[in-house]
Amino acid sequence: MTSPAPRKIIHIDMDAFFASVEQRDDPSLRGLPVAVGGRAARGVVAAASYEARAFGVRSALPSVTALRRCPDLVFVKPRFEVYKAVSRQIHAIFAEFTPLIQPLSLDEAYLDVTANLAGLPTAWATAKAIRARIREETGLTASAGISYNKFLAKLASDHRKPDGQFAVTPDMGAAWVETLPVARFHGVGPVTARKMERLGIVTGADLRAQSIDFLRANFGSAADWYFHIARGEDDRPVNPDRVRKSSGSETTFHHDLTEDEEIEAGVQRMADDVWAWCAKAQAFGRTVTVKVKYGDFQQITRSQTVAGAIDSHAALSETARALIRSVLPTPKGIRLVGVTVSNFPAAEGATLPLFEARQS
Predict the structure, then answer these.
(1) What residue stretches are annotated with the UmuC domain (predicted)?
(2) Which of 51, 73, 189, 280 is packed most tightly, with the most Cβ within 10 A?
(3) What pLDDT does residue 3 have?
(4) How far apart (Å, rounded) are the C-alpha atoms in residues 39 and 78?
(5) CATH 1.10.150.20: which residues of the chain?
């Protein structure tokens, strides 16, 4: 029996999408460090231009921190209706080349172009044509990763940013993965990357050297995923019908907390993370859940469902703070808090990956 031909997957990622739209529409912003978001004390950066990123400004960063890093930062109020309209233009372009489109957010998607509608001979040529159409239609730039699976395509799209493309072919995939830091791998967030580093796993080669038993002992249910991606393997198809059901973020503290203000601040940071996702994906749920894990590993949750979508940062923060206050003062130290938004309307199709638990 012969093996099936490799898939041809493209991961398209718009370059600093929200900020680039603002710089496109207001020429006076071009070349300046721009942050899309609120400048208020509890504001959060939804997106940052490349000029701002040079100062360490990034999405989900509190606005006060962003200003400390870049005092000349220019804040612009988000215009989500404009971003959604541009996103519809971009997805219409995708549909000229393939019906197999899996959106990850307004500015990011996987495309399976194994049989592309334009009849182009290679995935490389298809990605180039898509990026040219996006520039022609919207005046914006996109980067592309091309490979035989989704994991490698997503890694590759970062390799020539901005306004570039990079291909990982079947004969180079496994070896290429070995050269990369595991912190870049999709599914390996900051907490897991630090844990891997403590175990001597810094590169893809280090990860590949571990047995599946070792990975399961240290990483539980995620072990099989790490085992396969270390070998450049990912069987997930591009799924146009995948719908996101929730978005959450949680943090484990360096030491158990007992002070109300510190615990609330931790919940607020998690709400900031989740709101950054909601704003980018334009997906707004009706249910907020706060998770608490005590120092003895007892775990409780508190949830609230509202009549309409929670469609502002202030509303999410207020709800999350009210929920954590319902368990304060705490009878014992708290080691972890988390915030999740769920109960999205059925029409929402946002599919950004979950924020990973992090340590603060």
Answers:
(1) 9-189
(2) 280
(3) 56
(4) 11
(5) 173-229
Q: Does 13 show up as a binding residue in the annotation?
A: yes
pLDDT tens for 253-293 read 878 899 999 999 999 988 988 888 888 777 889 999 999 99
Q: What is the mean pLDDT of residues 305-325?
A: 91
Task: Find out whether 158 is annotated in a ligand binding site.
Answer: no
Q: Which fold has domain 17-79?
A: MutS, DNA mismatch repair protein, domain I (3.40.1170)
Q: In what order do the strands lie in the sheet with 9-14?
A: 101-105, 108-112, 9-14, 142-147, 165-168
The answer regarding whether domain 9-15+81-168 maps to CATH 2.60.40.10 reads no
Integer-rounded Cα Rg, in Å, for the chain is 21
The pLDDT tens digits of the residues spanning 4-19 come to 678 999 999 999 999 9
User: Domain 173-229, CATH 1.10.150.20 — does that match?
Assistant: yes
Q: Considering the domain 246-359 in this protein, what is its CATH number?
A: 3.30.1490.100
Q: Which residues are catalytic?
A: 108
- Predicted local distance difference test score (pLDDT) of residue 346: 58
In one-letter notation, the amino acid at residue 62 is P
- Three-state secondary structure string covering 118-133: CCCCCHHHHHHHHHHH
- pLDDT tens for 209-256 read 999 999 999 998 889 999 999 999 999 999 886 666 778 888 878 788
